[in-house]
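User: For documentation purposes, I need each entry recorded in a consistent format: the amino acid sequence on its own, followed directly by the corresponding structure tokens. There are two entries in this batch. Please keep commentary to a minimum and don't merge the entries.

Assistant: Recorded as requested. Entry 1:
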Amino acid sequence: METRVLGAEDAERVRVLRLDALRDSPTAFSSSEEEERDIPVAQVAERLAPTPDGAVFGAFEDGALVGMAGLHRERHRKLAHKGVLWGVYVKPAFRRRGLARRLLEEALRYAASMPGLRQVNLGANAASPAALALYEALGFERFGFERGFMAIDGVLYDEVHMTRLVTKR
């Protein structure tokens, strides 16, 4: 297994995996397959370019992209000390092998290299104990709970808000 920062050359694979994620785990993401299926590959490629303010990380098994996680810095100047971890997903057949942990560790290393970044925040579905346990094992702490964060087909889902201080290298 390999993990690395993704780039424009990975756009088609990322697009396919993202749509799989949105279909497979709709309660894990605030976006939907319907909202993302028509995004052109060129636009995905543009978004994938790593910057000093963030990157997308991929996990590969035998050359196939099977997991990913994104990190970006908040855009407003007064919030730029915070990063946001987003889009964490591993294909079901590859779960429980440590891939998500490796992706998150890589994202946290990247966060530590970002000048001025002091903390990383994330939101996770409250009904996902495996995800919450992994985030807590990596040092994230709960700081909030939002009832009815998201609605899918009339069903409300709660979200746990978590944060972790960035350890500088």
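Entry 2:
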Amino acid sequence: MAKGRHRTRAEWQRLVELFEASGQTPGEFVAAHRISEATFRWWRSRLRDHAEKPMFLPVDVAVPSTPRMGRFEARLPSGVVLAFDDVDPAVLRELIAVLGSAR
């Protein structure tokens, strides 16, 4: 192939985008655009490897459907200590009811 002109990074980016949308093989594309296959492959690889990656990823923040308490600790007369982190108040009420009826 004849020696081509110097292209900017933006021009190579546009050529790579055109190629990806073309449905052609790399050989067909470079022949149609009269560019060096080796240079095209190098730029394609370089642009793919250095593509800007998003700095942030989208996240879904889930809000608990029931209110939560922080750390809860219960010391039973037997000496047993029950400790819970982030306990649901309804579960705590059930636990206290069960413990209160277990005599």
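Summary note for entry 2:
DSSP finds four helices and two strands in the chain.
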